[in-house]
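Ticket #4471: structure output looks truncated?

Reporter: J.K.
Steps to reproduce: submitted the chain below (156 residues) through the standard prediction queue, then opened the result file.
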Amino acid sequence: MQGLARQDVIATVRAELLLAAAPEVVFTFLANLRNHRRMSDRYLRLTRLFPDQQGAWIVIGAPLGLRRTARTVLTSACAPAWLVGTAAVGRRTSALVRWSIEPRGECSRVALTATVLDAGRLDRLLLALGGRWWLRRRFECALARLAQAFGATDNR
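Returned output as attached by the reporter:
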């Protein structure tokens, strides 16, 4: 994320996919947080939307039966290019989450990035023991489910 010093970032996790849909269509889909349920699975699951529809609770089911609950809030958006929000887990762990949508002809390159800015002991340990890789795979799965709605044209 621009404006963040490298020492402020604990971890960055990113996944991207080319979708056969115009950026405006993808942005409209992502801006409606109800649609994020369609990208849920047993490991990364939207469980409840806030009454104002600008945030949600997401349960993260990690390996070994660990579960973390993230409180997410949409903080800004610029149609049709990006949506940015925050995610907080427990008292210490916080991240910026960004959906980026770039035009590629008649398609869109969609990226989901989480930048972890602070983390409690458990979350630091999980990130160090493969959590980055695991979370990137979860993001890739969420993007694959997004692609089911639009038809993926490429996975690079």
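Triage note (M.O.): checked the attachment and the full token line is present. Residues 9-150 form a domain with the Alpha-D-Glucose-1,6-Bisphosphate; Chain A, domain 4 fold (CATH 3.30.530.20).
Status: closed, working as intended.
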